[in-house]
Amino acid sequence: MSQPVKSARTLRSTNHETADGSESASSRRAAAQRLAMRRKLAAAAMELFATKGYEATTVDEIAAAAGVARRTFFRHFRSKEEAIFPDHDDTLVRAEAVLDAAPAHENPLDTVCRGIKEVMRMYAASPAVSVERYRLTREVPALREREIASVARYERLFTRYLLGHFDEGAHHVGDDDPLLAEVAASAVVTAHNHVLRRWLRAGGIGDVEAQLDHAFGIVRETFGTGIGARPGGERPAAAARTNGEVLVTVARTDAPLDEVMRTIEKALKRK
What we know:
- The chain has a two-stranded antiparallel sheet.
- The chain contains 11 helices and 2 strands.
- Helix 1 crosses helix 5 (88-100) and helix 6 (108-124) packs antiparallel against helix 8.
- The N and C termini lie far apart (58 Å).
- By secondary structure, the protein is mostly helical.
């Protein structure tokens, strides 16, 4: 029977956090046991999909191969295609935790880049498994659709985060901040997926984190100066203009000169 998709915040609450946000030792053990069982079921599903084929494999067979009952399978997954991605729920929680704990002075685009690295690390933790899963998703449309749905959850998370740094009530005609936030979030996700697919096609060999940092550098250069810092924090570079001929700019002392100049140019264009 279909069950509602759990948000990252909901998942955190099911992990039994204490009032101060910390998890008890028992809840950490329960979370570890839950993830271990999910991975065990996923491994059984992948092996059966590879040997019998996706369509010919049943949930009962996956459960039997993992040595558990059918009801245990459905406590962890809603369908057999979902079983191929055991870590996405927990990774989404970790990615959101990065956003929630970001320092006030950090550019939100940098925060999003750090957050999505949690996804990359999930794949890089088990290269052989990730490569095999990538092969299966290329061959089975249902698995590919599931993968797309998982990616969409991250993109929504990061888009909401970036949009949260803009005052919707202050927007006016010609203000592209909301568009910039959505395009930047999509660019971060696209850069991540491009690097990850290239790494998987290469057999999971190479320093994927270094490749990702290079890709993020391109995204930051394109979008970084147009997105402000967290509410209540500093912008990397900001500009204000009076009604007269005076242009006043404010920037961090460590802001790169080219970043300051681009901010000034942007302010002048709005004049």
